[in-house]
Amino acid sequence: MPAVTSKKPPVPIPLLMLIGIVAISFSSIFIKWSSAPVSVQGMYRLLFTSLLMLPFARPYSGAAFALRRKDWLLLVVSGAMLALHFLLWMGSLKFTSVASSTMIMALEPVFIMLGAYLLYKEKNSMSAIAGLAIAIFGVVFIGWGDIGLSSDNLKGDLLSIGGTAAVAAHLLIGQKLVARMPSYLYSLIVFIAAAIVFAIYNLLAGIPFFDYPPREWGIFVLLAIVPTVFGHILFNWLLQYASATTVSMNILGEPVGASILAFLLLGEQLTILQWAGGVLVMGGLAVYLYAGRRKAEKRSEALTSIS
């Protein structure tokens, strides 16, 4: 991950973050609009994104040849986890509301914290743990509200939780790999690996690759360009201008943006329990991210005093 520099991007950071939040918020809307199997949507989203990235990959060819066999294995596993994330999370949108699914997806830091503790023995402050506990309590509220709607809604919530756990595993592997390889190269290889995993899944499941109307192909392209290029890749690019904690605050924006878009474009309504759960999730995550920033500031101050 590149170090934050004092240089400024050509466009103000707040405006770029707003563009990124709006872009990723459209992801669930496009998925809802599509009638294609989610595994096909995920495959073409990653394939088209990879094709857009390939022309800029030549400077990283040397780093690719320097990768060890173990690195390639981890890249494939990371790609498989990313594919599983898309399969479960995108599948959840067929059963539950955009708001419920994206609010649960915002719990990604919870799974990352647990994984980092189990794998790397990373510890968190009590305030960070308290924030995550509040967020988990909020998910219970969301699930409770969904039970009152239908059993399918609860099934969608569970799929979203599974998708969140999968993307956390993907990010934890990525945290280890980007320490010794360019993040652009990592993203490109993982996207290609995930697309191949989806292709194998579709082949084994007998799901057609090409028998879709032009409207569906348009949605596949939009999924690659809008939420992926102008969302996730933009956030990765912003890491050279802003701290990881600042960029990660965008995770709070997606459920809000997606819920507003779902109300305007899909006519989705939320129950009082779902709203209450959403407020708890967002509030708990805000506490967690603030605690993480304070921890990073104290570590930086300690290093400065030593030097």
Automatic annotation (TrEMBL):
Subcellular locations according to the entry: Endomembrane system
Tagged with keyword Transmembrane helix: yes
Domain (EamA): residue spans on this chain: 15-143, 155-288
Pfam families noted in UniProt: EamA
Topology relative to the membrane: Multi-pass membrane protein
Transmembrane segments: 12-31, 43-60, 72-92, 98-120, 127-144, 156-173, 185-205, 217-235, 247-266, 272-291
The entry's keywords: Membrane, Transmembrane, Transmembrane helix
Record-stated family: Belongs to the EamA transporter family.
PANTHER family reported for this sequence: ACYL-MALONYL CONDENSING ENZYME-RELATED (PTHR22911), EAMA DOMAIN-CONTAINING PROTEIN (PTHR22911:SF76)
Protein name: EamA family transporter
Organism lineage: Bacteria, Bacillati, Bacillota, Bacilli, Bacillales
